[in-house]
Every structure is written in C-alpha cells, then in structure tokens.
C-alpha cells in the first residue's frame, strides 16, 4: 500500500507517454493490498474467543464504515484547501495538490500501520486454539495446533450458505452504490449537481446510522442470537428497504426526450434510451428515504454477523482460505452486480428491477430460516476428544511428523484408558 500510493502520487515524475501505464500498475497494486482485509479477518478469528468474536468483528466493521465516511471528507477538505495547482515540494518531481494529497495521506497512515505490525510492537496470539484445547480438556502443550481441529466436522452447508448470503448482500447494495445518483436524476428531474449534493447528505446520514447500529451489535447479541438477528434484523430489513423502492407514485416522472439529451441542462427520465419511463410510475422522495433507512440498518447487521457466524462455524482451524473465498465472493458480487443491475435498470425499469432484487433477498432469507439451527456453532461443533487428539499426536511423533516434542507419561496413560 505504501509503495503503490507513493507511486500513484509520483505519476508526474514519469514521462507523459508512460504515465498511464504506471497509473494502472499502481492502482492494481492498491487493489491487491486491499486484500489484507482477508488476513485481518482471519487473524481476528484466531486471536479471539467465541464470546469475543462478535465484538471484534463489529469493531472491524465499524472501522471500515468510518473509513468510508472520513475518506471522502478528507478528500473534500484537501481539494478545497489545495485546489488543482497546490504547491511543489520538489519542483517537477513531487507536488501536493488535490490529486496527489490523498495518496500521501495514505502513505503516512500505511507507514504507521507497518511500524505497529513490526515484531517489536505486535505479538501474534492464537487464542482460538487455546480455547479449543481447554474445551477438550487438553492442558499439555501440543506440537502444533492442527490436531485440535483435525477431527472437527465442518458444516459445509452452513459455511456455503453464509458465503452465498454475503454474495446476496453485496450484489444488492451495488445497486445503490452505482445507480443511486442516476436513479434520483431520472425520477426527480434533478441535475447532476443536485443529485450529488442531496444523495451525499442521505448517504452521510445513512453512514452515521450504520456506525450506530454496528456499535450496538455486541450489546444486542447478548439478548438475541446472532442467527436470528442476521435473519430478522439483517435480511428482513434489507428486504423491506428494497421493497420500499418499488414506485408508489401514480404518474410517470418528468420525461427527457432525444432532442434534449445532449444538453447539459437536460433533466428527467430519458424515454428514448429507457422506454419504460413513459408508463412506469415515478418514485417518491419519502419512499427513497424510508428505503435507505432500512438498508442502512439491515446491511451493517447482515455483513457484520455473517462474518462473525462464519468465523465461529470454521472454529479453530486456519481461516485464511475460507475468509479469502468469502471476500472473493463479495468482490465478484460487487463487479457482476454493477453490470447486471445497470442493464436491468435501463432495460426493465424501477418496478421490475426492485421487485426482482426484493424476491432475491426474500428467497435467501427463507433459506436462512430453514438452516438457522445450523448457524449456532456451539450446538453443532463436533470436535476430537482429548484421547483422540493425543492419539493423533502420538502417531505423528512415531511417524516423525510431530517434531521433537516429547509425549508425557500421563499422555501415554490417557491413551490406554
């Protein structure tokens, strides 16, 4: 992240003929470095107990949302302060302006993060494995953690149900992320400036609501199970929020015809490109606000608890691959959702687009109701007994796979019982 952000901010130092290629490379590296979220989620799972897991994942989600909030704010402040020209640091090589300043801020923050993760300041912990050993009554240190989870049964149905649930959430939220401004421009005949301004306010308020919801999750989960909360607080609210976007009005929106399409002040629903504008009722402002309110509550609940439950179902086994699979599924959903939903909106219109996505969320919610008993890891985890674990260790030591750790006399006695 440090090198990629610095390279992006130094693009002016490269020849103009090759700068665009360096920009693509740096943006690619930034995208790759963003995958560290998967490693972070995996480590949180390994460094927390089951009781701590929900609170830890909530804090991570809270930090992400705050980043989404303050990132654009910092960019706006730096843009207004520095402007297009800014000021040079090293003439012709390094400058600080509205385009490069955010990159340098990321360099500073990433450098601080790098230092904090050095061995002098950061000590890796394996709390989940120790908790599993305690649960199984193992007090003697084992050569490695693998025997603790090696005989555990992973519920693949529950795991893949949660992965698909993350796909559903991200796929649907991509609709507003990518089409929120075009939709309100079509429906309310707003200019681009008006749409950006008003939707910015709505999204800022929604972000504050999401932060509040995430902050309260740990407390709420003391009284409501995570499985029930993700169903009735996450996906039910997402369903209501999406259902609220099906047009309530009784008249079509203001129409924009072809001869106005290329004018900078043209507003309204482009009937030539989107024929449904002529006969589909317009959305109302109250329903947009109500829908966004429910989405701002349901989405953070769903995302945070899906990861929390998923981590608990995986147990003490290494979770990097599984977390990577889940994050990769979300990235795929975001990419394909942007394309598919854009096509659906242009070709089918608001009524069918929001109806189809509502049915999608409802169908998955029903599926969660059917499998919700399998989303409680404490009830369904089947782990190796202490005797089985010690037998595994003894066999691996005899085969030369367990390292040089000796087998204690009491362990051998336990194997004979």
From TrEMBL:
Keywords: Membrane, Transmembrane, Transmembrane helix, Transport. The chain crosses the membrane at residues 20-44, 56-78, 98-118, 156-175, 195-217, 229-248, 289-310, 322-346, 352-371. InterPro entries: MFS (IPR011701), MFS_Domain-Containing_Protein (IPR051068), MFS_trans_sf (IPR036259). GO terms for cellular component: endomembrane system; lysosomal membrane. It comes from the Eukaryota. It is a multi-pass membrane protein. It holds the Pfam family MFS_1. GO terms for molecular function: transmembrane transporter activity. It is found in: Endomembrane system. This is Major facilitator superfamily (MFS) profile domain-containing protein. It comes from Cloeon dipterum. The lineage of its organism: Eukaryota, Metazoa, Ecdysozoa, Arthropoda, Hexapoda.
């Amino acid at each position: 992240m440090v090198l990629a952000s610095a390279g992006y901010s130094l693009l002016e130092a490269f020849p103009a003929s090759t700068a665009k290629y360096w920009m693509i490379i740096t943006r690619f590296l930034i995208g790759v470095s963003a995958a560290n979220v998967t490693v972070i989620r995996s480590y949180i799972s390994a460094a927390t107990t089951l009781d701590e897991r929900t609170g830890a994942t909530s804090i991570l989600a809270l930090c992400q949302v705050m980043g989404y909030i303050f990132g654009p704010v910092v960019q706006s402040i730096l843009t207004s302060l520095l402007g297009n020209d800014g000021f040079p640091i090293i003439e012709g090589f390094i400058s600080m302006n509205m385009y490069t300043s955010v990159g340098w801020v990321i360099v500073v923050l990433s450098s601080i993060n790098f230092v904090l993760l050095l061995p002098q300041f950061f000590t890796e912990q394996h709390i989940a494995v120790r908790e599993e050993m305690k649960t199984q009554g193992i007090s003697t240190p084992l050569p490695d953690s693998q025997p603790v989870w090696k005989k555990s049964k992973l519920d693949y149905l529950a795991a893949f149900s949660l992965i698909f649930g993350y796909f559903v959430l991200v796929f649907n939220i991509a609709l507003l992320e990518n089409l929120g401004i075009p939709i309100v421009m079509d429906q309310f005949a707003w200019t681009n400036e008006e749409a950006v301004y008003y939707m910015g306010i709505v999204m800022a308020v929604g972000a504050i609501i999401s932060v509040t919801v995430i902050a309260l999750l740990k407390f709420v989960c003391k009284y409501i199970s995570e499985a029930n909360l993700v169903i009735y607080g996450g996906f039910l609210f997402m369903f209501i929020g999406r259902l609220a976007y099906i047009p309530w009005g009784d008249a079509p929106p203001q129409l924009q015809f072809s001869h106005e399409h290329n004018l900078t002040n043209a507003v309204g629903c482009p009937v030539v490109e989107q024929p449904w504008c002529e006969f589909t009722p317009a959305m109302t402002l109250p329903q947009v606000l109500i829908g966004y309110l429910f989405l701002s509550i349901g989405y953070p609940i769903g995302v945070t608890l899906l990861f929390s439950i998923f981590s608990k179902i995986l147990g003490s086994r290494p979770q990097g691959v599984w977390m990577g699979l889940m994050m990769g599924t979300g990235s795929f959903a975001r990419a394909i959702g942007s394309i598919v939903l854009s096509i659906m909106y242009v070709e089918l219109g608001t009524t069918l687009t929001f109806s189809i996505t509502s049915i999608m969320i409802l169908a998955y919610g029903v599926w969660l109701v059917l499998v919700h008993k399998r989303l409680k890891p404490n009830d369904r985890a089947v782990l190796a007994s202490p005797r089985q674990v010690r037998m595994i260790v003894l066999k691996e030591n005899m085969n030369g796979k367990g390292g040089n750790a000796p087998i204690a006399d009491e362990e051998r006695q336990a194997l004979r019982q």
